[in-house]
Design goal:
This protein is an alpha/beta fold. The protein has helices at about 10-20, 25-55, 65-75, 75-95, 135-145, 165-175, 185-195, 210-220, 245-255, 270-285, 290-300, 310-320, 350-355, 395-410, 415-420, and strands at about 5, 100-105, 110-120, 120-125, 150-155, 180, 205, 225, 235-240, 260-265, 300-305, 325, 345, 385-390. The chain folds into three domains: about 5-20 and about 230-360, Rossmann fold (3-Layer(aba) Sandwich); about 25-110 and about 120-225, Nitrogenase molybdenum iron protein domain (Rossmann fold, 3-Layer(aba) Sandwich), CATH 3.40.50; about 390-425, no CATH class. The protein contains 15 helices and 14 strands.
């Protein structure tokens, strides 16, 4: 793994260059065609695309409950126990995110407030392909259910040998209301616009490939989306007290996700940097997903050596990583130096996969530097806020002059007259 010794300004420039996301115009155009076809031809378009892309003929999109129940009943006992443990911890954490509205009646004759309303129906996209992610189903559906969402539906690409049983079991554990066998950009279009078989949703959540991500961008506005997720990334801040074998393993835990994943270590120790680099190289040789991880390490990963702890945090705040490990002595004392990160892992025994599976905080996190302005998925993503106002006549009279003044400054006479109509000063 390459080690970089440069000044802070040069390192920041390197990070910003590696974060830039390029738009593939061919993908944009292809997705536009797919969405337009689904809008026009509905289920028929979905069937055609599933046959073309997944080589599966679908007669019935909705998966029958008996198949889901059988997957749960026959699931390996250890897998089931792990999913149930994850559910308990995810639920206990996200229950604490629940918020309530408020009523403000402090001013005489004025009632103001805000009420929180859950979304009615949410669509969860679950990728198919080489990997299955039952943990992501729990992370997506459970906060929605805690928020009070009426219906959570799931879409996932059909598989020739059937959908992974752990995926189906996780959906049942998480309380998913219906599962539909459809994937890709066509699934996003179906969720956004609805078809005869698949109902329209209010919000789409969940990761996917570049076609799914592009489709989510294009349907935003028709429906809400959680985020446009990029490749996974991990940033580690460590000093000479950290264990290089463990740091290398943590870096590779994210590198194995995707060839474009970003594993980054920032340290003030040249000795540690070399030891971690050597450990990454040796561990790559025996990692099952070595081809993917090697491409990630070689093309997107690096170890930066800086002068002091504050430089480590300043540089990592520029990265704004999806996952941030603090492998320093007394790591909690550095929390105030963290400005941009999706989720933070403190100390030797908070390895990143802990957060992926069972700790409880959500693992659907902002990527590609978007932790500068975005947050992890949570209960708050599944509610909308509605404000309300009530004034008595004396209260409105007290503020009428200010309202009509501002209305006329903006050239909106009708606004001013709507207020004056209540006080016998309205003119036909």
């Amino acid at each position: 793994m390459k080690i970089i010794n440069e000044d802070l300004a040069t390192l920041k420039q390197l990070i910003q260059t590696k974060t830039q996301q390029l738009t593939d115009e061919k993908v944009v155009t292809a997705v536009q065609v797919i969405i337009a076809n689904v809008i026009k031809n509905g289920d028929q378009a979905l069937q055609d695309y599933e046959k073309q892309f997944d080589q599966v003929t679908i007669d019935q999109f909705k998966l029958d409950q008996a198949t889901i129940d059988a997957a749960y009943d026959n699931l390996d006992a250890d897998v089931k126990a792990a999913l149930l443990l994850a559910k308990r911890n995810i639920t206990s954490f996200h229950e604490k995110e629940k918020a309530t509205g408020f009523i403000d009646a402090e001013q005489p004759g004025v009632l103001r407030g805000q009420k929180l309303l859950p979304l009615n129906r949410v669509g969860l996209y679950v990728p198919g392909g080489t990997a299955a992610y039952p943990s992501t189903i729990l992370m997506s559906a459970l906060p929605a259910k805690i928020a009070g969402v009426n219906e959570v539906i799931m879409v996932t690409p059909p598989q020739k040998d059937g959908i992974n049983p752990a995926v189906l079991a996780a959906a049942k554990i998480a309380g998913v209301d219906a599962i539909y066998q459809v994937g890709g950009a066509q699934a996003i279009a179906a969720l956004a616009y609805g078809t005869a078989s698949i109902p329209q949703v209010d919000k789409i959540i969940g990761p996917g490939n570049v076609f799914v991500a592009t489709a989510k961008k294009q349907v935003f506005g028709q429906v809400a989306i959680d985020m446009v997720a990029g490749p996974s990334e991990i940033g580690i801040i460590a000093d000479d007290s950290a264990n290089p074998r463990e740091l290398a393993a943590d870096l590779l835990s994210q590198a194995e996700h995707d060839k474009l994943a970003r594993p980054i270590l920032i340290t003030d120790s040249s000795r540690l940097a070399q030891a971690v680099s050597d450990n990454v190289d040796s561990q790559l040789k025996v990692l099952p997903r070595t081809e993917i991880a090697t491409a990630s390490v070689n093309n997107k990963g690096f170890i930066a050596v800086v002068d002091q702890v504050t430089d480590m945090f300043e540089l990592m705040n520029t990265v704004a990583p999806e996952h941030l490990e603090i492998q320093l002595e007394n790591p909690t004392q550095y929390l105030n130096l963290i400005k941009n990160a999706g989720s933070v892992f403190l100390g030797r025994y908070a390895s990143e996969p802990l957060g992926d599976y069972v700790a409880g905080p959500n693992h659907i996190l902002p990527t590609s530097g978007t932790a500068r302005f975005s947050s992890p998925l949570g209960v708050y993503d599944f509610v909308k806020r509605t404000s309300f106002i009530q004034y008595t006549a004396p209260a409105l009279a007290k503020e009428a002059k200010a309202i009509t003044t501002l209305a006329r400054v903006e050239g909106l006479e009708g606004h001013a007259r709507a207020i004056e109509a209540r006080f016998d000063t309205y003119y036909d």
